[in-house]
Design a protein that fits this description.
Layout: E1 2-11, E2 14-24, E3 29-33, H1 40-48, E4 55-60, E5 63-64, H2 70-75, E6 78-81, H3 93-99, H4 113-119, H5 121-124, H6 136-148, E7 154-158, H7 166-181, E8 185-189, H8 193-199, E9 202-207, E10 210-215, H9 217-222, H10 224-231
Parallel strand pairs: 3-8, 3-9, 6-7, 7-8
Antiparallel strand pairs: 1-2, 1-4, 4-5, 9-10
Length: 233
């Protein structure tokens, strides 16, 4: 579904990506792992058109994404849950969801507000609350629901459970497992390795703007040297 090849990116004169290479298929969960500042968010922003790459290619179901504006990329079926949630503070929870609702790709069973509330029952009880009055966990659930309301083929999450209480984190992982079960492809960045590896099919460790290790979850769990060297586990 997604193939990133020899991707480079700069912020002014500072280079952030030095030839990112990875790929995964339809219905798979893939991870970008690594310490802070290694290029994971820049990679995600390059895929979504927030950062314009300086070289390389990004193919999404054979469509080249490099050079396309972010709204065109979203319309191809990529939904982003950004780091920091970024919900609309002056809209209610329900308004946050319907503001992004679309079905450009004509899914037969599209995501609706009701389906989001089935996935996250906590949101249904707060549907009239303003975005800035929600807890951090509720905002993260809302950010995921908002991305699902675009009816994507690929869901990208940057720091899926950062700063959340353990109980809320488990609810997020349970929801992502259910989303995977329904066939949606997922690319996720997160530091909660034990939870992440339970749902991941492919893992890519990023160091200094390039992939330095790739493999399935069983292989990563067994590679103690790699875990210690790149992830500090």
């Amino acid at each position: 579904m997604l193939t990133v090849s020899e991707l480079t990116a700069h912020y002014g004169t500072s280079q952030a990506l030095f030839g990112m290479d990875f790929a995964f298929g339809t219905g798979e969960v893939a991870t970008l792992l690594g310490r802070n500042g290694q290029g994971k968010t820049t990679t995600i922003h390059s895929i979504c058109g927030v950062v314009r790459p300086s070289g390389g290619a990004i193919l999404f179901d054979g469509e080249e994404l490099v050079g396309r504006p972010s709204f065109r990329i979203a319309n191809l079926g990529i939904g982003l849950v950004p780091e920091g949630r970024q919900v609309f503070p002056n809209l209610t929870l329900w308004e946050n969801l319907v503001a992004t609702a679309s079905n450009h790709l004509g899914h037969a069973d599209p995501w609706t507000v009701e389906r989001v509330f089935d996935l996250f029952p906590e949101l249904g009880a707060r549907k009239g609350s303003m975005g800035n009055l929600l807890s951090g966990g509720e905002q993260q659930m809302l950010a995921i629901g908002r991305a699902l309301m675009t009816n994507p083929r690929l869901l990208i999450l940057d720091e899926a459970t950062e700063g959340l209480a353990p109980l809320i984190r488990q609810k997020i992982w349970h929801a992502l497992a259910e989303i995977k079960r329904q066939g949606l492809s997922i690319l996720v960045v997160d530091k909660n390795l034990s939870d992440l590896l339970r749902i991941a099919d492919r893992n890519f460790i990023v160091e200094r703007g390039r992939v330095v290790w790739s493999g399935n979850s069983d292989a990563l769990r067994a590679d103690r040297d790699t875990l210690h060297r790149y992830l500090g586990v």
